[in-house]
Amino acid sequence: MPSLTIKGVSINFPFTPYECQNDYMSKVIECLQEKVNGVLESPTGTGKTLCLLCATLAWREHFKDTISARKIAERLKGAELFPDSPVASWGNAATDGDGSTYYTDIPKIIYASRTHSQLSQVINELKNTSYRPKVCVLGSRDQMCIHPEVMRQESNHVKIQMSKAKVSSRSCVFYNNVDEKSTDKDLVNTIMDVEDLVKAGIKHRVCPYFFSRTLKSQAEIIFMPYNYLLDPKSRRAQNLDLKGAVVIFDEAHNVERICEESTSFDLTPYDLTSAIEVVNSVLTEQANDASSGEPVADNFVSGSLNSDLKLDITAIASVKKMLLDLEEVIDSYDVSSEKGLTKPGSYIYELFQKANFTFNTKTAMADALEQITSYIVGKTGIFMNTSGLQKLSEIIQLVFCGEPDEGNNEKRRQANTAQFKVHIHKDTSTYKKPKTDVWASSSSKKQGNILSYWCFSPGFSMQDLVRQGVRSIILTSGTLSPLLSFTAEMQIPFPVTLENSHVIQRDQIFVGVVDQGPDGVQLSSVYNRRFVPENMASLGNTVANFGRVVPHGLLVFFPSYPVMDKTLEFWKENGQAQRIENMKPMFVEPKGKSNFNEVIEGYYNQVNDTKSKGGSFFAVCRGKASEGLDFSDNYGRAVMITGLPFPPKMDPRVMLKMQFLDENSRKRLPGVKYLSGSEWYRQQASRAVNQAIGRVIRHKDDYGAIFLCDRRVAQKLRPLVDKAVVKGSACVSESQSSSSTSGPRSTSAQKAKALDSHAPGLKRRRPNEGGGGDGMARLSIQYDTQMQSRSKRPGTLMDALAHSDQRPGGEEEGVVGEEMPSSISTRSLQHDKHLDDRFRGGKRKIKLVQDQ
């Protein structure tokens, strides 16, 4: 295995690295040596994960060797062990003068990604290296419990409760075997992901969930989902010690959202009602037991750790009263308006104080809720929904985090809530709150309000992470640009940055804009056009046409699930789905996790079938398929983006986020980079698109085509591309850049020599080869023969979207992404085409022609 040295650290790499991989590993080593944070962007397919693992583990081994060398040097008191290699000179490159002389000072590596499927891919990459660190992967009970009785339960909540009950009563044989198996070297030293742990647990009859926690204390690298790391509640539950640790966020384009969600909550009427019902049942039971003289322990499993409820009836009654008061306070607000009621973040204290929730009562209340939850979980044969109680306990800890200094309460409260907003709005769900008892407030007779406490700055969680004493934080992904605004939102310093180039050549990827369908109808996903029948029909015919010429796997991404569902339903009723199905059988991404693997395996098998013409996979941007799934080689020879996935602009949370950013932008403090609300809004769509199109290029030898099927893309990229409009075709124009490529770009456009060099599967057909059908006239792709300067043109989709707002005559400010469609007739389109033909000097066409 090749070995290279970067900044004094010897790295074992599976093959000779490319220049961009050397650059990436150099930046990783720099972060670790200097004990600073870094944000590193490297396109999909550049071996980012492999570079990250090898560089980090090599640095850690070197750090360990440095400590060994210092210990030897101390014992030799400066004498040289080898004449040509003074031991005292070892290690400064690794530790930068840390002065660490204990093996306990060797940093752990915390590797976080969004999902366990992504972590499994990372762990598989680790297995391909020469490094064999002690590994631990953390997962949830419902993922890792192997007890047959628990696994039969359909509800995750019931699974978790039943699992806890069996553990507390020591009636789970798998849990009871954990201590014995924790010394099994074959198990301890094997690199396993969650799936491997479950298989090993079944084979060795040991609980994977608790066995993974025994591995954590000795692990050198710990894998976990984002929320385990960013959510303070999860950190406490996992007992994570981050002091001195190296924290890595892979697929970090999701970090902003996860940071905000981990410190936000929505308290619904159902949450409060279910909590009140549980407390009321315990109160009733305790009152009955007290009146009959029966001991409480008789209601529990023998030996249960939770059989002793250390709360008297008065305390339980007080808890119930506080919950009823909180319910009444929240429902007392008149929020008939669809917009709801918004208050500053600090208002949360005033609201909770009305129900006697304060810094002084928070500890007692949280303890009481935890005790009642444990009491219910410990009971046999009865499984009540304690999710409301658990949620309230977590909310109390979130809102009343820290202890305000005496006489400085207001200042502390302002600091805690500066990044938050309180939003009270109507509950529009179908659940109706039942009347619990005579203690219940009158609010139980109506639908009720939802109390939302939303964080709008990922910096709140990032700063909390820094306060844990981490050594370095590395954020990495293929779609982070623009880095300046991304790092500004994080509110912690990132001295090390990288925007890497790609390993592929330009003739391995084609990017085209399809702004109208084969019938000349403009393709658009704006809110008032996306469900127009002629628009949906034209899009369906466009997909069917591409299905005829794209070999093997075709990926089609929609802006959202509702848009995909309604469009597919229309296609089924009007024949477009049958046309697609005849060429490439359709597979649709499900919303839930239950049958996702089954669907994706079906698609893979269809593409692998040599007797078939491939398959088509329909998914949504920001969905499971667009985030980290592997569609390499034949699984994804082309990807179609059927609309720009802007967030729902009228959603209260989106509106408040944009308002929050605009308020901060107006401060204009010197030396601070601000992100405006409209910039953030555009970036959400651009990053989601970039993630989706990143599915098509997965390694250096991969190739494929990208088709952006929305007229708004053509408008945004007008300075970047020349459009070819051909009657009766799905029109495609060339974009000279790929958003997969984020490094420095050529100042002049590199022209394609032939269509086949862009997408080898898009072979030219002779007119007599047959095929065709309605709207399947020809596919025309236009290329320039002259070199054009692009030094002042935007280089990526994101750049172009931002650039478009600076042009005179651009879309009206404030309606980016949801602008009204212009009314253009087919006749005017034909006239534009005629003018385009007249002034098309120095250009040639390469056509794919089929009989109609």
From TrEMBL:
Residues 7-297 form the Helicase ATP-binding domain. Pfam families: ARCH_RTEL1, DEAD_2, Helicase_C_2. GO terms for molecular function: 4 iron, 4 sulfur cluster binding; ATP binding; DNA binding; DNA helicase activity; DNA polymerase binding; hydrolase activity, acting on acid anhydrides, in phosphorus-containing anhydrides; metal ion binding. Residues 829-840 have a biased composition (Basic and acidic residues). Its main location: nucleus. It comes from the Eukaryota. This is Regulator of telomere elongation helicase 1 homolog. Residues 731-748 have a biased composition (Low complexity). The keyword 4Fe-4S applies. Residues 731-852 are annotated as: Disordered. One of its GO terms (cellular component) is nucleus. Residues 841-852 have a biased composition (Basic residues). It catalyses: ATP + H2O = ADP + phosphate + H(+). It is found in: Nucleus. It comes from Muraenolepis orangiensis. Keywords: 4Fe-4S, ATP-binding, DNA damage, DNA repair, DNA-binding, Helicase, Hydrolase, Iron, Iron-sulfur, Isomerase, Metal-binding, Nucleotide-binding, Nucleus. PROSITE patterns: HELICASE_ATP_BIND_2 (PS51193). GO terms for biological process: DNA recombination; DNA repair; DNA replication; negative regulation of DNA recombination; negative regulation of t-circle formation; regulation of double-strand break repair via homologous recombination; telomeric loop disassembly.
